[in-house]
Amino acid sequence: MASLTAITALGGITAYDETIGGIRIAEIADTCLASLAMRRGRMADFEKAVGKVLGTDLPAPGQRAGTDAHGVIWMGPDQFLVEAETGATDLAGRLAASFGAAASITDQSDAWVRFDITGKDVPAMLERLSAADTRLMQGGAAVRTPVHHMLCVLVCRDAYIGFTIYGPRASAQSLHHALTTAAASL
Predict the structure, then answer these.
(1) 114, CA 20 to 30 Å: which among 52, 144, 173, 180?
(2) Is 21 helix (H, G, I), strand (E, B) or coil?
(3) Does domain 17-29+111-184 fall into CATH 3.30.1360.120?
(4) Is domain 31-107 annotated with CATH 3.30.70.1520?
(5) How does strand 103-107 pair with strand 79-85?
(6) Residues 165/176, Cβ–Cβ less than 8 Å
(7) Is 95 exposed, middle or buried (0-12, 13-18, 19+ CB in 10 A)?
(8) How far apart are CA 166 and CA 108, in angstroms?
(9) From residue 38, how far is each of 76, 83, 102, 171 by CA, in Å?
(10) By three-state DSSP, how is residue 170 classified?
């Protein structure tokens, strides 16, 4: 039998975590993600399942709802990204069983890399990488935006000082380089 070792999106055995000039950039390797899209004509069934399964209301456009451990990010009309801590094994399977024919669900856990960025100069750093107005984002705001030419999801966890960036896993090294270079430039 083969002996396999899990690696992070950046290729390490442990997740990257460094502080550069007061900005902490941490790769979060244990988040489970699933896309959730309401099927046409199934609004009543979809909304009924939302209350039971997600434990939160659906977020408004440009928002994230939920707790740190379990959240829902608005991605577009009737489209959401559900995030959960690693203990939520088979998130997509559990969502599919609960939503049934009311939604289309796809596991996204290995499609994205997550970086949590904290520090008092984070908005200045992100201004170098994105057109999103991070100085005005309040906790719970979420936006799809290019970050250094890569389409990402930017979530404000704590106004002005705490953000999450979800980027394409295939571009993890490029995104990481952009983040660390911008942090070092301050």
Answers:
(1) 52
(2) coil
(3) yes
(4) yes
(5) unpaired
(6) no
(7) buried
(8) 11
(9) 11, 17, 6, 28
(10) helix
Phi, psi of 107 (to 5 degrees): -65, 130
Cα separation, 144 vs 165, whole angstroms? 10
Q: Is 161 exposed, middle or buried (0-12, 13-18, 19+ CB in 10 A)?
A: middle
Q: Would you kindly state where each structural domain of the chain is located, as residue ranges?
A: 17-29+111-184, 31-107
CA dihedral 6, 163, 79, 113 (to 10 degrees): -20
Rounded Cα distance, 119 and 74, in Å: 25
Outline where DSSP puts E strands in 49-161. 64-66, 70-76, 79-85, 103-107, 112-118, 142-147, 150-158
Q: Which alpha helices (DSSP H) does 14-162 contain, by range?
A: 43-53, 91-99, 122-127
Phi/psi for 126 (5° steps) reads -70, -25
- Residue at 66: amino acid letter: G
> Which helix (H) or strand (E) element contains residue 27?
strand 23-27
